[in-house]
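Supplementary Methods, section 5.1.

A reviewer requested that the exact input to the structure prediction be made available. We therefore reproduce it here, unchanged from the version used in the analyses.
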Amino acid sequence: MTVGGGAGGAPQSIEPKKLRIYGLVGSVVGIYLAYILNSVTGTNIFSFVGSLAALFAVVMGANAVRRVCAYGIGTGVPSIGMLALGMGIVASLFGLNIAEQLGIGILGVIVALVYSVIFGYVVGLIANRVMGFNIPIMEEGLSDLSGAGTMAIIGWSFAISGSLAYSAIVTNVINTGFLAIIFICGGLAILHPFNANLGPDEKQDRTLVNAVMVGGMSNIATGVCALLTLGLPAGMVQIVAGFAVWYYFYVWFFRLAKRDAAAVVGTGLLPPSAL
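The structure derived from this sequence is encoded token-by-token as follows.
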């Protein structure tokens, strides 16, 4: 089975349905696992698991960007990544808030996810039917992107706040301005992989490995934020875990880049400039 890239229907080693299941189930289970571990131990040390859960959503989102943008929307690659996190912010805050008002705050993640998928589908319809993109998988792709952005937002918000409570996330993530860091770092993790690897030699495995690598850097950034909200132990664990993810997948990405390169040569030192 090939790992080749190309447009939405091109051959790929992992089918979109599988990545969708891995992304949604992995992120939801990971977020709730972090919540349970913190509750059982009475600490916030396991908040970093939320940041790891966000990586499942990042991979799903990066693959959705790959499929939609391979149809040739050009400079829309960065835009669609920002759109994913924008939809994610709206859906996550809506879901957590509504669930809390209904007295089912623990189900806020599920409510936010359901809303995000519907929200993304509606935006996809507008993009295709009103704006005239005419991309066959636009509705499906934006549903995936909205769901991925929402799960990434909630995962990283939990990593910073150590809570799924709407009020705690508002206090520790929104009021502190850390939401901006999540937005930029998360958007980069979802949009950058295809943007960095696009072209006739784009490969799905190299693109998705790049997504996890950038996601690891995002985990380091949210770990720095956690130092200020959760304290030194929880923040440092998250930074170390993020660095481990980044380093492992950086080595893997470098190996794949060498595999796909026409040649790997040493250029030596730059010649001295003549002034």
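The chain has a mean pLDDT of 90. These observations are discussed further in the main text.
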